[in-house]
Amino acid sequence: MPVPFIDLKRLEPGFLERWAEKCAELTETTQFVGGPEVTRLEERLRERTGAKAVVGCANGTDALQLALRAAGVGPGDEVLVPDATFWATFEAPVNVGARPVTVDIDPVDLQMDFDLFVKAAEECRPKAAILVHLYGWGSGRLQDFRSFCRERSITLVEDGAQGFGALHKGNSLFKEAQLATLSFYPAKVLGSCGDAGAVFAESEELADIVRRLGNHGRTTHYGHGDVGWNSRMAGFDAGFLNLSLDYIDDRIEARRAVTHRYRGAFEEIGVPFAGPPDDYVENGYLSVALPGLETRPALEVALREKGIGFGTVYPGAMSRQPGAKAWLAARYGGENADRLCRGVINLPVFTGITDAEVEECINVFAEAWHSAGTVR
After folding, report:
1. What would the pLDDT profile of 160-195 be if each residue is shown by its tens digit?
2. What topology does CATH give the domain 249-371?
3. How many Cα neighbours within 13 Å face the side chain of 134?
């Protein structure tokens, strides 16, 4: 039985009918850019996460750049970033004129290595750092990162593109962040019908700077206090997200159940499978199996032959990307990130995936694992 890696058409009964009504309402009220629907979304996200302020924007990459610009990061500055992440985390400092410094990951929680981060910070004196909440959880040293950065006046931007719905010590990852960002790319846990993003700020003053920068630096309609750019959220994205928020708790619980099922099954057959530190509740964004570089190619062949979709999120460390060479200010470690990127494999997790589909994925993977001779 073929199983897709992701299927965005698996929506709850009645969702499409409600969405059609919402589209008609947005069209009739011409809420094409910004408007009440965006304001409502920002307020709902603020209430749900406990953040002080939320600003919608055009996409998750812009959210990172807006956060860095709002913190005063620009030409001549250096920004610490993890070596295992999506390319946008590396691009964002470059696009505001700064230079990235890559820091290796902890091989246990797969997040940026705190001790190496401290070393990099002491030697490079960065203006800011981007801490990525990778795979649907975060660093076991999250509080250490936050405290260290505040003590050293390093702006910490938390890239939560994969972190919506994850909990740290019972709280949203966005609640106590100085600055944090979110992507609403359709494949995310809370995805839109197009590109969209948001910046979470610890104060209204900081949020006002973000909002101004994302709207051409406007102070009035034709008054411009900054040089910004156009990163406004569309009304249709906000409408789709507001509708999706009505279903999000059930979606997240279902995703968590799938990742827990994978983890239990894979532990039984001896496949290394990553998960969150003890003080986290993951959001089920991704299943993260770690069969290793030597075994992964054979597993990929077997999965393709059976029509099982899979991902490798992400297949290359930042410091080893061809595009990094011209911009990389420094590199701290990278062996763990490289090992992860070359050995990770992700099985399907998405809204509406069935028990039978999950079972098929497990069975095909287990058979391929045994065939590869990895079980002793």
Report:
1. 999 999 999 999 999 999 999 999 999 999 999 999
2. Aspartate Aminotransferase, domain 1 (3.90.1150)
3. 29
